DUF5666 domain-containing protein
Amino acid sequence: MKRALLPLTALALVGCAAPAAPTPTVELLGAPTTLNIGGTAVTAQATPSVQGGTFSVLVRLTSNRPPVPNMTVTGVYVVTGSGVWKGAVGADQRAACARNACVLGTAAGGATGLRAGQTVQVVARVQDARGRALWLRAPEVKISDGT
């Protein structure tokens, strides 16, 4: 009887194991589409494009009550069917729209594996005024050809 219970107990314990750690893609796709910053809803729109061998993504943060809270786009992640493209957004690639109605950030790099017409999911890494790093996911979008 004891010999029969041991394998059954082992099977039961395997079913109770903690789930595997989420992959970066799963974490990115689980990012929120709206951030609540001090009662203001902030959302992102993305404009990815490929031209020649260069891929670039413009991310635009807007809010339901301008001005947009003090935020900075620090990175861009693009989830495709075959992986994740990532790019940093340096200080010279950031801007604010007139009257702080939006915040812009652009990342650029090699376009290997990316093509115009491809549907992708863009996730921005943003930093708020308190220095917290947050994720914000834009709606799915197609990569343009840069024209």
Summary: The chain has one domain: 22-142.
